[in-house]
């Protein structure tokens, strides 16, 4: 149980950062309903063995409910992060990665996505 205590805060920080910087939380006229829905998915299905499909399905349903408009201009980038999360989760499920290695891989993916999004924002607003 201690592993979840250590992973969940880190994972939420990564998710919140991506969501904030990619404009993914600008839904529901600023109320953040999509962000809250996705956060519940990570809370209900933390990065652990045998949670990949459940977490991905939950996130997919949340994104589908609010749609591309709620996810902002970086909709495709957020979907790539979702798919990377599924892939990392599958590797944890299969025992290819440990939870710690999966967390590192997912952090790398989200950092790369943030960098790509921030470069697009800088090129639009010099």
Task: Please describe what this structure looks like.
The protein has 126 residues and is mainly α. Helix content is 77%, strand content 0%.
Write the layout of secondary structure elements.
Blueprint: H1 2-21, H2 33-44, H3 52-71, H4 75-93, H5 99-124
Helix pairs in contact: 1-2, 1-5, 2-3, 3-4, 4-5
Key terms for this structure?
single chain, 126 residues, mainly alpha, 5 helices, 77% helix, 0% strand, disordered N terminus
Radius of gyration: 14 Å
The CA-CA distance between the termini, in Å, is: 47 Å
Q: Shape from CA axes? A: globular
Structural class determined from secondary elements: mainly alpha
Number of strands: 0
Order of helices and strands: HHHHH
Q: Characterize the largest beta sheet: strand count, sense, and whether it forms a barrel.
A: none
The number of helical runs is 5
Average pLDDT over all residues: 75
Q: How much strand content do the residues show? A: under 5%
Low-pLDDT ranges: 1-5, 20-31
Helix content: over 70%
């Amino acid at each position: 149980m201690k592993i979840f205590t250590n992973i969940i805060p880190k994972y939420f920080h990564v998710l919140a950062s991506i969501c904030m910087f990619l404009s993914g939380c600008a839904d529901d006229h600023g109320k953040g309903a999509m962000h809250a829905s996705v956060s519940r998915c990570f809370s209900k299905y933390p990065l652990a063995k045998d949670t990949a499909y459940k977490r991905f399905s939950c996130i997919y349903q949340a994104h589908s409910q609010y749609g591309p408009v709620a996810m902002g201009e970086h909709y495709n980038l957020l979907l790539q992060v979702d798919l990377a999360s599924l892939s990392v989760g599958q590797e944890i499920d299969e025992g290819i990665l440990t939870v710690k290695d999966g967390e590192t891989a997912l952090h790398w993916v989200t950092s790369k996505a943030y960098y790509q999004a921030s470069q697009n924002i800088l090129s639009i607003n010099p």
